[in-house]
Amino acid sequence: MKRLSKLFTFVIIPEANQSVKRFTVSGYILVIVPSAIALLAICAAIFISLFSGSAAKLAHLQARLDLSQSGYEKSLQFKNDRIAALEADLTTLSAQADQIENKISEIAELESQLKEIVGIQSTDVHISSANNIPLSEGGQGGEEFSLMQSAEASSLANRTGQEFDLLASLMDELKPSLEATKSAILKHQQLLDITPTIWPSDNRKITSTFGVRRDPISGRSAVHNGLDIGGNRGDPIYAAADGVVTLSERTYPQGNNILIDHGRGIETRYLHLNARHVEVGDKVHKGQLIGELGNTGRSTGPHLHYEVIVNGTHVDPTPYIQEDREERE
Asked: How much is the pTM?
């Protein structure tokens, strides 16, 4: 320590023409200055080393960031492309769904028409989309499922589109078949309308059948060309089928009687009526009121003598009577 407290003199001898210069320096300065210079050199070396390492790390991180950004941009572009493709698939599926909905509506309309023709009561069933269901406040819950991957969604959309195409094709095949069925039913219904298949009266009491019988007035065997149905005077009498009235008169022994031509060579006749409500030329419908049961002409009491004539020949009316009038209303 004593040596450091001493003073040291430095002498600078310049060229011969200049004076000598002396510097007195403390021993402490001789120690501190070199030490400070050495410390600064060490710090500089450490700083340079740290800066170089940090720069390398920054460059590495920048490279990784650039790579990540590039990958993110590619991934984002891929996802955008997939979203656009899925939107296109959904647009196609929506159009196909609308087309199928229209076809279903057409088929449902045909079905309703067929039911109406054959007399089946229709039951309306409304199917609403889940998206159209109004939501109310309250608790919610249920098992959670993650959305499928875009590739799975695209595959599902493709399969659904193929199924829609197949369904539309089946509906295209079904519609003509239903149209043909409707046409056939209409023809059959028209055929039924002009075929005498219902009871001509509300009473079901048969007092005399078709064929050979003992005549109730003469007592002799005779051919009975119709079916006698008992009842009360004034009971309603109905047309057994659609047709045109070709005869409406009062004669003997028929009494008040009506003849209806149903086409295809088939006619029906109603005898011994109390009153007639139709005239020659009138078009009548199956089940329409045409007269009243009575006791006119050659008759032993109130009844309807009902005849079915095919191609000019009287036939047994019994096989033609297959249903009640009320069943058709």
From this structure: 0.54
